[in-house]
Amino acid sequence: MAAYVVVQVEVTDWDRFREYLKETPIVSARYGGKYIARGGESVVLEGEEPLRRVVIIEFPSLQKAKEWYHSKEYQQTKKLREGAAKGLLIAIEGC
What we know:
Elements: E1 3-11, H1 14-30, E2 34-38, E3 53-59, H2 62-70, H3 72-78, E4 85-93
Antiparallel strand pairs: 1-3, 1-4, 2-3
């Protein structure tokens, strides 16, 4: 069953964050990750306006999403984000 990683990121340093943006798709693809939404225009239909960039990545399974996040490759890539943005990443099974 597919799983989705939903990300909310508050970018504080775009120059540094752009380096992270270059590498993340490469690493997630190794684990079957496919971007569904990546920081595009969003409209709040209900609730409070999010202060963050929203990203959704689809993986073949929740296990693959966890493998991607905990992989050596992503942990190295994640270092590019440190100090440039802070985020919330949630993995959820699809239906």
